[in-house]
TrEMBL record:
<dbReference type="InterPro" id="IPR038538">
    <property type="entry name" value="MTERF_sf"/>
</dbReference>
<keyword id="KW-0806">Transcription termination</keyword>
<keyword id="KW-0809">Transit peptide</keyword>
<dbReference type="GO" id="GO:0006353">
    <property type="term" value="P:DNA-templated transcription termination"/>
</dbReference>
<dbReference type="InterPro" id="IPR003690">
    <property type="entry name" value="MTERF"/>
</dbReference>
<comment type="similarity">
    <text>Belongs to the mTERF family.</text>
</comment>
<keyword id="KW-0805">Transcription regulation</keyword>
<keyword id="KW-0804">Transcription</keyword>
<protein>
    <submittedName>
        <fullName>Uncharacterized protein</fullName>
    </submittedName>
</protein>
<dbReference type="GO" id="GO:0003676">
    <property type="term" value="F:nucleic acid binding"/>
</dbReference>
<dbReference type="Pfam" id="PF02536">
    <property type="entry name" value="mTERF"/>
</dbReference>
Length: 332
């Protein structure tokens, strides 16, 4: 007996023809229909209307298929009831640049699937309680659009609670989140807390951990076992002792996330082999690792060596070029 495969009928057929007309293959269409069951009841005219609107707000035609494939639900949403109000609200947050909204949606199409009243307004109120203004929230969304998908109760409030446990006020927490929105993408129990505990185990005081969280929140986001511990091991192998490492991390926290191969290794080699200094000198002046090799370290070391001038690392590095030349009477 011959088996005849079922053919799409009704609205299902309509939306399939729409997708085929836009260049989607059968496999992609099936995946989208499975992702969003509501699409089966969407007329091609409605989908076409939403598609046209998305191009009208600046989403490039060549990128739109990828946007829709990642969030097919946007073709089923009411244009006047959902899409336009959300885009208008995003416009107030993201500014007046015409490409900002399109860029955010292209990054994270699910932005459009959320409700202004049910999601964006509560999100705005939550951040306002931390001293974050509308325009700042807009910048955060541009950097990390996924913020809109995070639960306020189970995700964002948990992160605020953790930062508060470090001794930070709500206003300071707001500044931390604005400075590094990506911190909201990490879990408290599996990333932020273990990393903070690791930092304390290195010898940092609670006050120093607070300063790190405010000025270098990106360090808190890194995996303690995979990243931070490997850097500590490398520094110990170079001759730094426990108290030196505590001083390095306190004075310049990014030392734990800088590339070992491209940043730490060449600077330590330059310090010892070219400058002829002891390793402890870097522990006394951790910002040594902040400066560029060619523009600051190599050029200044060359000038000092030509005149046989001896000085501390801080005297050599903690001033601009003009002051450096005047300090050591090197100006022509």
């Amino acid at each position: 007996m011959q088996v005849v495969s079922a053919q799409p009928t009704g609205n299902n057929s309509s939306i399939r023809w729409f997708f085929k007309d836009k260049g989607f293959d059968d496999k992609s269409i099936n995946v989208m229909l499975k992702k969003c069951k509501r699409l089966e009841d969407v007329q091609s005219e409605k989908a076409d209307e939403n598609w046209a609107y998305l191009t009208s707000i600046g989403i490039q035609e060549r990128k739109l298929p990828n946007v829709v494939a990642r969030c097919p639900k946007i073709l089923s949403l009411g244009l006047n009831e959902k899409l336009i109000p959300m885009v208008q609200f995003l416009g107030t947050l993201l500014g007046t640049k015409p490409n900002d909204i399109a860029s955010a949606i292209t990054k994270f199409p699910q932005l459009l699937a959320h409700s202004v009243e049910e999601k964006l307004c509560p999100l705005l109120a939550f951040f306002e309680s931390l001293g974050v203004h509308e325009k700042q929230l807009g910048k955060m969304l541009m950097f990390n659009p996924r913020i809109i998908s995070y639960s306020i109760e189970s995700k964002l409030a948990h992160i605020v609670e953790f930062l508060s446990s470090l001794g930070l006020s709500n206003e300071v927490i707001g500044k931390v989140l604005v400075k590094n929105p990506s911190i909201m993408g990490y879990g408290v129990d599996n990333r932020l807390r273990p990393t903070s505990e690791f930092l304390l185990s290195l010898g940092l005081e609670e006050k120093e951990l607070q300063t790190l969280a405010v000025n270098y929140p990106e360090v808190l986001c890194r995996d303690a076992k995979k990243v931070l511990n490997s850097h500590v091991t490398y520094l110990k192998n170079c001759g730094f002792e426990d108290q030196h490492i505590a001083a390095l991390v306190t004075g310049y926290p990014p030392i734990l996330i800088k590339s070992i191969k491209n940043s730490l290794k060449p600077r330590i080699k330059f310090l010892v082999d070219v400058m002829g200094r002891r390793i402890e000198e870097a522990a006394n002046y951790p910002e040594f690792f902040r400066y560029g090799m060619k523009k600051r370290l190599e050029s200044r070391q060359k000038l000092l060596a030509q005149r046989s001038i001896s000085c501390s690392l801080s005297e050599m590095l903690d001033c601009n070029e003009k002051k450096f030349l005047l300090r050591f009477d090197l100006a022509d």
